Amino acid sequence: MPFLDLASHHAPLRYEFHEAIQEVIDNCAFAGGPVVAEFEKEFAEFCRCRFAIGVGSGTEALWLSLLALGIGPGDEVITVPNSFMATAEAITYCGARPVFVDVDEVTYTMNPDGLRKAITSKTKALIPVHLFGQTADMEPILNIAKEYGLKVIEDACQAHGAEYNGQRAGSIGDTGCFSFYPGKNLGAFGEAGAVVTNNPELYDKIRILRDHGQDRKYYHTQVGWNCRMDGIQAAVLRIKLRNLEAGNQRRRSHAAHYSNALCDIHEVITPATASYAQHVFHIYAIRVRNRDRIMQQLASRQIGCAVHYPVTIHLQEAYRSLGYMRDSFPVAEKCADEYVSLPMYPELTPAQLDHVAYGVRESIVNSA
Length: 368
Ligand SMILES: Cc1ncc(COP(=O)(O)O)c(C=O)c1O
Hints:
By secondary structure, this protein is α/β, with parallel strands linked by helices. The protein has 13 helices and 14 strands.
């Protein structure tokens, strides 16, 4: 039972992939080009946003968003400590300082209650992270941002198609940032990402920044970077995008299956879906006290599992200089000690889901 089975996801689409990739080869549109433009149009539509800009990764999407919003040295950007490292790295790349606030114990996303205390005269932006496929509670976050004149960048790298009160993830803040890393709900055949926005000025800025600061070939209005999306990745993503809604629906149904099968085990906390949310379960993470022993038991039953993420960002060695200590963010730290991500992908069968749930039950009994 692998944690992730991309081969089974790709198998039925194999010939479509071959054809689309062959077309890119025939047209030699490898870096940017018409296929990327087509994908951008379709992905913007999917996110119910005016614009999408294809870039090289989710990290680049975050970084270019920050640059386009004018974030730089001396600024502070508030985010959460229980995310992938890239969320904070993008802030550091701009010369700004990442500042963390704790998360809500039920949704594992930015807790708006802690925000005001973290805001200083240097704060310029907020990056809520839609962790595991569920959006943060955006309304109170946006209200605070408005009150203090802060920009909001949604880290939607794990939340393709998720919704907040009917609004698509990514379409709510100033920009929304997506990763198309292969294992994501919408994954490329390598590295890729996108920024979505409703703001035409930000669209222009990010489009130009990702292409060496040029709007017209060889006429550079500013110093940019090379963050273009590959044509082959766009071709693959266009095919997978058509299957994304169905895949997300299957993930929700698998999550319900797991939660139902595990609901009577009081040692297990299953993920909750907030009343505002349409969850897309990029990750299905349970929480357990005896994590290491339970994971050993699952491994001995050949059930693939993982931890997202074992060390919160504020306690990473790379960020020691920020001066955070253990117990700075008790909820995020507790969750990092307890999370176990179970296999989650659309192709899982009911028998496989039952097998995993049974494995969890037995592992808990044997670890007691
Ligand atoms: C929450 C989050 N933010 C940012 C990123 C960075 O995306 P990428 O790996 O495409 O650079 C990821 C990728 O795993 C992520 O999960």
